[in-house]
Amino acid sequence: MGSGSGSGSGSEFGSGVATEEVEASAPPELGDKPRILLFMRSGRDRELLTEALSDRYQIEATTDVETLESAHPFDCCVFDARGFNRVAGTIQSRRALSAPVFLPFVLLVTDESASTATGNAWDYVDDVIELPVPKTALRSRIANLVERRKTSLRLAERERKLAETVADLQLKERAMDEAPVGITLAESGDGENPLIYVNDGFENLTGYGSAMLGVDCRFLQGDETDPETRSAIREAIDAEEPISVDILNYRANDQKFWNQLTIAPIRDEHGAVTHYVGFQTDISERKIRERRLEVMGRVLNHNLRNKMNLIEGYTELLRRELDDDASRKPLEVIAETTDDLMGIAEAVRKIDHTLAGSPTESAVDLRDRVSELVSQTRDRYPGATFELSLPPRRHPRRRDGGRTDDRDRRGGRERGQTQYRPEPHGDDPCRATLTGLGRDRNSGQRTRNSGARDARARTRRDHADSRGPARHLANVLGRQQGRRRVLRVDVG
Questions:
Q1: Do residues 350 and 402 share a domain?
Q2: Is 245:229 a contact under the CB 8 Å cutoff?
Q3: Residue 222 domain boundaries
Q4: What's the number of domains the chain is made of?
Q5: Do 128 and 114 share a domain, yes or no?
Q6: What pTM value is reported for the model?
Q7: CB burial of residue 103 (10 Å; 0-12, 13-18, 19+)
Q8: For residue range 110-134, what is the model confidence (pLDDT) as tens digits?
Q9: Count H helices, E strands: the chain?
Q10: 250/258 Cα distance (integer angstroms)
Q11: Which residue, 299, 378, 309, is CA-closest to 341?
């Protein structure tokens, strides 16, 4: 391009004759291309510059100073001498808006304008390009500045993410340091797991602080620490599995305390265990309360049985002395109430035993177990009707594309038989609905010698007929499944 001619070979960019000034153009739809702002009058120079750069960049042209003063987005700003003289004082404030990201400014000068425009231009701009200049050189110098900005953007984004990560880590560290429970981190190793971190809560709980870093946490154990609990912890760590136990530990002053200890492995991105995190909570007061309740429960249960046996004995003596039915009726009520209280006490004992016991470690096929128990209970109560609802079983397909028969779908609703109806029950793993009256085959045996005792037995059997099968099935299942299964029994 020839200087000032508006035409030429196309290998150089020069100044042309300016034409009339136009309003700032609206920014084009921005894509992935960097944005170049041409702050110069409309004319041949601006047209040639747009033509030279538009294949690589989004081009926007303006002469509005407010565009620079605002946060209008661009990646490089190019001035001519006149435009630079208008906005030189605005450049630094515009850089501040972009900080810490680099924002380049370029000044284009001719031989005539170089002496007046370049005196202090380098204090404001990042490059001064004298015209005429080869097109390739112009594009290369603009590209270098744009690439610097891209690098600055990437670095700024990394610094932002790093700052967020550091702030997040600091927040988590403060949360661990100030947690109301003891928290420890230990390295993974064979036989030894030295501590690398203890929080303030651990020091407040045990009396041990940073001086114990590098030592295995077994220093909390003592003579009265349960060996089985020790072994369970060691086995879980060796198996790289989490564990939660109540363990008797010792503080730095040799004071004993009950520690609710939870240990969990920490794995890296490949699944390998690198560390273990431990949580310690003082549960000494809870253990004392549990012990007191246990003693009180045993005493109350013992006293209740003694008193009930005493009442039952005196009731039997009175029954033998009385002949008329009217006088024996209140005694029957007393005897039945006594049995009910004894039954409640036994039920409470069983519930307490179940809740206090350890959960079953091995998996149980609940479907087969329930079916077996229903069959046993049906044999014991032949007059009852059982309806057992189970989740649907996945049936294997036959080679011909059909499904195998579902034995759980068969069965009638006849007295003394069991009906199976597979259906989902949400939180209920199984649900047994018992309808009709059933009597225990053994319930007809005479347990008392007198006619009054037989009458009482008949009265109690009539009352228990409707609940006997359900209670039996619930007791057996509750004893077998412990806390791992839920049994819902509806008596029809």
A1: no
A2: yes
A3: 178-282
A4: 4
A5: yes
A6: 0.49
A7: buried
A8: 876 666 655 688 889 999 998 888 9
A9: 12, 16
A10: 9
A11: 309
